[in-house]
């Protein structure tokens, strides 16, 4: 207490200015990264109606907030509608999202579907509930997107989700497969987008604190967080601590794939490979060390939406 009272007022002003400066920098960085991901993958086009799926977690709040900022600056017109699926989990504070969305003036739809009871009834006690729960949720959200006339479904997955999924698929599914920033839904009727694809989870955490989003806890369903995902997250954190830049390089490698240097016979015609006598720019320099140049950043912007 004494420390606070005795603190030189000029120091507190400087501290406050520094915090404001850092917060502003964070907001600019998020807008730039989201704008870049939207541009790189042509996620949003003129006339789109983007259905932003809002769970009440930090990532979906952040996604909606940044998309609203970008829409104001965008050279194209598009609509945003927020959608929350109330799965009737015990103690879900149903008033929180409508109150927040009404306050910020965003059109929204709350879909009430008791998937919680279905999952509890069908899955035996102690077994993982997430896969059925997310399958049910997916089907409902696709139907809602149809009913609302949404042309894009935006999800709040970020860079760390993408990397974790990539390693989960490799370690446990024996597949080189991640979580794409843009994809066609499995029913073939919708385009799903992940505008936070370039954003670090730590930035989303800080942004949620800065903006004081009314976060709804994500453990209401009583499910344990997926243990394997937890382990991968810990592995990536450890790497980042011990080898700064490694995680960033792995992430960049997802957009610099060389099929001729992998082993997927369906992706590259190894069987028909013949020497042509012509030099090939990405040919194998079989006896040399691979150069370790950092990847060049892709700088395409979403309609000039940078800072
Ligand atoms: S954590 Fe709970 S709400 Fe989320 S997918 Fe799993 S069962 Fe469903």
TrEMBL record:
Binds 1 [4Fe-4S] cluster per subunit. The cluster is chelated by three Cys residues, the fourth Fe has a free coordination site that may bind a sulfur atom transferred from the persulfide of IscS. One of its GO terms (molecular function) is tRNA binding. It catalyses: cytidine(32) in tRNA + S-sulfanyl-L-cysteinyl-[cysteine desulfurase] + AH2 + ATP = 2-thiocytidine(32) in tRNA + L-cysteinyl-[cysteine desulfurase] + A + AMP + diphosphate + H(+). Homodimer. It is found in: Cytoplasm. Keywords: 4Fe-4S, ATP-binding, Cytoplasm, Iron, Iron-sulfur, Magnesium, Metal-binding, Nucleotide-binding, RNA-binding, Transferase, tRNA processing, tRNA-binding. This is tRNA-cytidine(32) 2-sulfurtransferase. It comes from Noviherbaspirillum saxi. Belongs to the TtcA family.
